[in-house]
Amino acid sequence: HVQLVESGGGSVQAGGSLRLSCAASGWTWSTNCLTWFRQAPGKEREGVAALSRGGLTYYSDSVRGRFTISRNNNVEYLQMNSLKPEDTAMYYCAAKGGPCRETWSVSTAYVYWGQGTQVTVS
To answer: Which of 20, 30, 58, 71 could join 50 in a cystine, given CB atoms 3.0 to 4.6 angstroms apart?
Structure first.
């Protein structure tokens, strides 16, 4: 099993920045795709950014150019710049054993989830 713990959320003004962290423990060797999702009230969970074990990155159109996903050892980061009010959501990190590829943003493909961290942009 894999345990994921997010941190770094908070409140920020539009145009500001935040960095989210996701610490992974357990069977991390079994995961090949680590992804950040977000869910705003009344909306579906949305894939934001993914990082494959091989270092390939994937971004949604809504965040490309503003967010950067990275990893250092067993901690995955999401650097969020130029934040907008529409970025307000609960952010989750997730992991799966299969590759990222074309299913990276499909939430049902993920087995392991963190508890989430709230990001509020005003």
So the answer is: 58
